[in-house]
């Protein structure tokens, strides 16, 4: 098959592209480079620069590169920004997906792997979040991902697509320093930024109903995210028409924010620092941990990387971009 990877020049997308290419799949990257970088795309992989709102370019790319499957990663993904700019998020994430599905239909492409998010669940008071847990997203970003899943399911029913929606949790780490996350929106890079500024890391709230009072999350290495996308793509290749999968990508293990911060301080040689405790952030649930049974049953996939691997590889990437750190 020949796979079009939208957002393939971004942090997660670049890892998916390399994993698919390493597995012998033919890949073409489609990215508007608004947050991605052309330098992340391997020299042997074609790069088409364009928006997912450009239906004509999508149709031409599918035709010119004989695309038979799509991995759709391109999206706007910052929760806070989505609250401030909901119309922008719905246009990019929902209308963009609609435009892509229309181009796939025109081009006869019938396989789609969709990057969804645990943000579709919202704030659930459960030990493990299963794929059957209620979806009550708390931000426009989470809403657009859930609407995207609904849209895909409708297209599966109407057009016989084969589709897999992958809901992933807290992503960290890097396969190589040059592929590391350049954003500072998640816990690990946020701690790195504080360390670079010679400040103590900050913990938002230590009075939650958890063992150490801080929020508990399921952290997943970006290489495991990439391997799950590859496994889903391979599954769809041999699946019957109308196949529709919705799967969590997680380790099924919870780690508290304090535990993660302590590990980061140890890996970076800053064990002498004491984290500062700030007020809770609005909307932060106490615990969000994936149930990872279904993806193992459906795809034979299991996460392979642990917390220290995530932190160490992310730190190498940070130092690659900030050699003074």
Topology:
Layout lengths: L1 E5 L4 H12 L3 E6 L15 E3 L5 H10 L4 E4 L6 H6 L1 H22 L3 E7 L22 H20 L2 E7 L1 E3 L14 H10 L5 E3 L11 E2 L1 E3 H16 L6 E6 L5 E2 H11 L8 E3 L8 E2 L4 H7 L7 H15 L4
Parallel strand pairs: 1-2, 1-4, 2-3, 4-5, 5-6, 6-11, 7-10, 8-13, 9-14
Antiparallel strand pairs: 9-12
Helix pairs in contact: 1-7, 2-4, 4-5, 6-8, 8-10
Number of extended strands: 14
Q: Average pLDDT across residues?
A: 95
From the spread of the alpha carbons, the general shape counts as globular
In which range does the helix fraction lie?
25-40%
Name its key features.
325 residues; alpha/beta; Rossmann fold; UDP-galactose 4-epimerase, domain 1; seven-stranded parallel β-sheet; three-stranded mixed β-sheet
Describe the overall structure.
- By secondary structure, this protein is an alpha/beta fold.
- It folds into two domains: about 1-170 and about 220-250, NAD(P)-binding Rossmann-like Domain (Rossmann fold), CATH 3.40.50.720; about 175-215 and about 250-320, UDP-galactose 4-epimerase, domain 1 (Alpha-Beta Complex), CATH 3.90.25.
- About 40% of the residues lie in helices and about 15% in strands.
- The chain contains ten helices and 14 strands.
- The chain has helices spanning about 10-20, 55-65, 80-85, 85-105, 140-160, 185-195, 220-235, 255-265, 295-300, 305-320, and strands spanning about 1-5, 25-30, 45-50, 70, 110-115, 160-170, 170, 200-205, 215, 220, 245-250, 255, 275-280, 285-290.
- α1 (about 10-20) crosses α7 (about 220-235), α4 runs parallel beside α5 and α8 (about 255-265) crosses α10 (about 305-320).
- The termini are far apart.
């Amino acid at each position: 098959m020949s796979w079009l990877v939208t957002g393939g020049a971004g942090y997660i997308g670049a890892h998916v592209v390399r994993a698919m290419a390493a597995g012998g799949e033919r890949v073409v990257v489609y990215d508007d480079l608004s947050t991605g970088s052309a330098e992340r795309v391997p020299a042997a992989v074609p790069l088409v620069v364009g928006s997912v709102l450009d239906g004509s370019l999508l149709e031409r790319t599918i035709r010119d590169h004989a695309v038979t499957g799509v991995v759709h990663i391109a999206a706007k993904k910052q929760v806070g920004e989505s609250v401030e700019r909901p119309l922008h998020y719905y246009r990019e994430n929902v209308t963009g997906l609609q435009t892509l599905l229309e181009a796939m239909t025109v081009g006869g492409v019938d396989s789609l792997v969709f990057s969804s998010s645990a943000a579709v669940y919202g704030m659930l008071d459960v030990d493990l979040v299963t794929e059957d847990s209620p979806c009550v997203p708390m931000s426009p970003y989470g809403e657009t991902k859930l609407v995207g899943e609904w849209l895909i399911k409708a297209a599966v029913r109407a057009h016989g697509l084969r589709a897999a929606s992958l809901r992933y949790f807290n992503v960290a780490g890097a396969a190589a320093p040059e592929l590391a996350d350049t954003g500072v929106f998640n816990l690990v890079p946020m701690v790195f930024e504080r360390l670079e500024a010679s400040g103590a890391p900050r913990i938002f709230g230590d009075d939650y109903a958890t063992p150490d009072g801080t929020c508990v999350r399921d952290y997943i290495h970006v290489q495991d995210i990439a391997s799950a996308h590859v496994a889903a793509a391979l599954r769809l290749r041999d699946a019957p028409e109308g196949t529709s999968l919705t799967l969590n990508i997680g380790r099924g293990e919870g780690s508290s924010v304090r535990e993660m911060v302590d590990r980061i301080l140890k890996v970076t040689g800053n064990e002498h620092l004491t984290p500062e405790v700030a007020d809770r952030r609005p909307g932060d649930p106490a615990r969000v941990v994936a149930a990872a049974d279904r993806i193992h049953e459906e795809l034979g996939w299991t996460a392979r990387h642990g917390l220290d691997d995530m932190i160490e590889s992310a730190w190498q990437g940070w130092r690659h971009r900030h050699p003074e750190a």
